[in-house]
Amino acid sequence: MFQLDVRGLDCPQPLLEFKNQYEAGGNFMALIDSEVAKENILRFCKNNKIKYTIEEGEDIIIKVEC
Amino acid sequence: MKKYIIYSEKNNKERCGLMKKLLSIGIIVGFIGAILTKLGNPVNMGFCIACFLRDIAGGLNMHQAGIVQYLRPEVAGLVLGAFIIALVKNEFKVEGGSAPLLRFFIAIFMMVGAMVFLGCPLRMVLRIAGGDLNAIVGLFGFIFGIYLGLKALKGGFTLGKATKQENKTSGYIMPAFFVMLLIFVVVKPEFINFSSEGPGSFTAPILVALGTGLIVGILAQRSRLCMAGGIRDVLMIKDFHMVSGFIGILVAALITNIAIGKFNLGFAEQNVAHTEHIWNFLGLALVGFCAILLGGCPLRQLILAGQGNLDAATTVLGLIVGGAVVHNFGTAASPAGVPTNGKIGVVICFIILAVIVFTHSKKIIVRRDKDVSIGR
User: Fold this and answer.
1) In angstroms, how far apart are the furthest CA atoms of chain A?
2) Where does the UPF0033 domain start and stop, copy by copy (chain A) (predicted)?
């Protein structure tokens, strides 16, 4: 599975990368380390009806399986 | 580790709730911004991050413009409010190291733009709410700047990744710095300047200024309020959630201004403003552009600096130095208009930013396990 590592990036780059990857298609997982990026990405998922799973540990992992 | 599965559906109720929350936070911020003018701050400048940081630079003797020197306690309140709530909510994270020097200079450029327009994006909203139509010209410039910034990001621009710092000491430096400024405001040592006339002499009582700053700092940290972020989300993903905070500020400040008799519609004779449309437009375009490259408007940078972000702290220091530079180099506008140095300054900043964007658009961001080469 593609791993999209957006940890440490400034707003809005995590969302932008997530969006680009989603639009490119295929399954992928995104590694996130900030609450803001998580909120932005989850909002994007909800607005676009994207199915995802989320694991919250030290880093947050959001998986998208189409 | 928490793990849960969500099958996402568009949840209008949840969205409305979020928007209402941001709208109400915007309303509180807008009300505070307007009421502070009643309590002593300059008209249409209840809250202006750029102006206040410029005043702080003056207070610290970094520039000699006698009318704009005061260690605004509102700014200290913002940083400390964000610091406290981040500690409480376990969001105090010390990280940094993403192109600090570049951030420092981009922050100076942001200040050059802000001082040609005469205000940060927050003051732009408060100026519109005070009936200052020049600020609407500025708003269009701001949107244009954000558009340019998004183009840069889509082209692959990045300042790179911040890394987590094992040692948390550096995260406490900015809050401590602003506590020091608060002590200076109270003790008034001789090496600190206090304006006796001009905008710098219009001040709200220290406790009121600090208290309102704390409230706005806490609200802004929780809501991630960002003047650039709202417009950015609309342009980027057609998400109107964040822009509702912006609208809340506008509406609340407008109503408050009308109620306290500080509403004055028109272009001419606005407080601390000029009518040179091109430069109002380009000034805030520069601010918007820088805000997207830096990851947030001046307000957001202060909040991030409070919650341990060292890159935002570098940006804040750049803004303070920028506040000194614009007066020492004579680029700051005044109600009389934009000086030639200011016009040249804005153009030079745009040129340098263009060079930075083109040379920094390396695709280094993503690492994928199946794609061995770094980037796309």
Assistant:
1) 28
2) 3-63
